[in-house]
Amino acid sequence: MSKAYSYNRILLKISGETLKGNLEFGYEADAVNSVVKQVGNLIDDGVEIALVVGAGNVWRGIMGAEWGMDRVSADYMGMLATVMNAICLRDAFENAGFASEIQTSIPMEPIAKKYNRNDAVHALENGKIIIFAAGTGSPFFTTDTTASLRALEIGAEVLLKATKVDGIYNADPNKFPDAERYETLTYQQALSQNLAIMDSTAFSMCRDNNLPIIVFDFFTEGNIAKVLQNDESVGTIVS
């Protein structure tokens, strides 16, 4: 690689809200293009990148549950929403000149390829951005769990969780101005302090398989490169 990054293959988990910008729901061109720019810069530097995107800009399973919808049906709607977001990103990457491919956990040809680990790894090795969509294919699992599972399957060296906050704090920084950001945490410290990093299944998978998690502010351009350069002024690493 042309820059001194500490990781060669990463899985980036972004929320669906990342794509909506200042809109209440849906997609905002500037927000989508920001994702393309930041990820594209890393591709140009030789980083292998897989993506998992949430569905919060389109649908949340809890929304349906609130008016009595069956949880399984609501979760399947969420899976479909992640595919919509993946299509949006794939199109944006391709238009910017970056080869990309969607793999879904549920068969959806000709919209996207069915998930295949070997094909995904081969594509990553050839510089293609892989977008994993439709969750794990089963209800009751979050996109955090999908991100952890796919990261482990493809041999990612780190799981990057993109948020609106520049790391993990000992209290909510929006409510407590004197809250302190952690530069590093162990898995045990995160558990003992009940720090809401990911859902319990996702976190346990990372802990049990020694997959580092870095939580950082994705909305400040350039942060993702700093994270990969081990800049301790950005984000929190859990390992």
Report on this structure:
- Helices cover 37% and strands 18% of the residues.
- The chain is α/β, with parallel strands linked by helices.
- The protein has a single domain (9-238), classed as Acetylglutamate kinase-like (Carbamate kinase, 3-Layer(aba) Sandwich).
- The longest helix is centred in the middle third of the chain and has 25 residues, at 71-95.
- The chain starts with 8 loop residues before the first strand and ends with a strand.
- The relative contact order is 0.16.
How much of the sequence is in beta strands?
15-25%
Radius of gyration: 17 Å
Query: N- to C-terminal separation?
Result: 24 Å
* Secondary structure tally, helices: 8
Category by helix and strand content: alpha/beta
Q: Look at the structure and give the CATH class.
A: Alpha Beta
Write the CATH homologous superfamily: Acetylglutamate kinase-like
- Report strand order across the widest sheet: 4-3-5-2-1-6-10-11-9
CATH architecture: 3-Layer(aba) Sandwich
Name the overall outline. globular
Tally of distinct domains: 1
Largest sheet: 9 strands, mixed
* Mean pLDDT across residues: 91
The percent of residues in helical segments reads 25-40%
**H and E string:** EHEHHEEHEHEEEEHHEHE
- Tally of strands: 11
Low-confidence segments, given as residue ranges, are: none
CATH topology: Carbamate kinase
